[in-house]
Amino acid sequence: MSVGSEGYWVSPKGDIITVPHRHINTVVDHPEKFNLTKEEVKKVFEKHKEPLGFEGFAREEIMTNLIKDDWIRIRYIPRSDSFTVQVDKMTVTKKNQLYSFAHEALKGIGGAKYSPNTELKILDLGMRDLDKLSLSEAIEYEFKSASVIGIQDYVVESKLARIKRKVLEKLR
Fold first, then answer.
1. Which residues contact 16 (CB under 8 A, 6 or more apart)?
2. Percent of the chain at pLDDT above 70?
3. Mean pLDDT computed over 63-78
4. What is the pLDDT of residues 39-52, one digit of tens each?
5. How many angstroms separate the CA atoms of 85 and 65, rounded?
6. Is-contact 126 109, C-beta < 8 A?
7. Is 31 exposed, middle or buried (0-12, 13-18, 19+ CB in 10 A)?
8. CA distance 5 to 22
9. How far apart are CA 120 and CA 45, in angstroms?
10. Which of 102, 142, 151, 155 is the most exposed place for a label (fewest CB within 10 A)?
11. How far from the centroid of its chain's Cα atoms is residue 171's Cα?
């Protein structure tokens, strides 16, 4: 098990992106990776009269919009040996991405290796419980493997490719 409080983004296409410090800092530092511009991010912080990167209302608005746009936010909580996972709603694709994340977490992500008993607490945007399962339970399901990468290595999916992927997911 790891000692820190690690964070991860899971992209709409399933890549697991390590978050070096705070999720909002990753967005502020690399907005283009989230299909945002620096100006769009700054405007949200200005609207809420908060400094860039502050963990307040602007952060909440930006993160909520990203989660609604199929990003998954994950944070490891050492004191409870669990991950909090935020999704807009659970879909087959998101379940597959979480099973893949569980597999990678058990193998070790960036030097952080987790226990099979570490729990995934899956929450919706209202912080209501959608599901709870251990990493060992999650890897019992079929999954596609994912890449674990830093934000600088993430390749943004074009809007057309994203639309095609979503249509194909619905046809399955």
1. 8, 9, 10, 100, 101, 104, 109, 146, 147, 148, 149
2. 92
3. 96
4. 999 999 999 999 99
5. 15
6. no
7. middle
8. 10
9. 31
10. 142
11. 24
Q: 34 Cβ partners below 8 Å, 6+ apart? A: 27, 66, 71
21: tokens are 């410090």
- Token pair listed for 80: 């409870």
Tokens 């990776």 found at:
33
Between CA 86 and CA 63 the distance in angstroms is 10
* Per-residue model confidence (pLDDT) at position 157: 77
Structure tokens at 161: 């490719």
- pLDDT band for 73, please (50, 70, 90 cuts): very high
Task: Indicate whether 9 pLDDT > 70.
Answer: yes
Structure tokens given for 141: 């399901």
CA distance linking residue 76 with residue 105, whole number of Å: 10
Token duo for residue 43 = 């405007």
Structure token pair of residue 108: 């070790």
Q: Is 53 helix (H, G, I), strand (E, B) or coil?
A: coil
pTM confidence score: 0.83
Query: Given the DSSP bridges, would you call strands 148-149 and 119-123 parallel, antiparallel or unpaired?
Result: unpaired
- Count the residues in the chain: 172
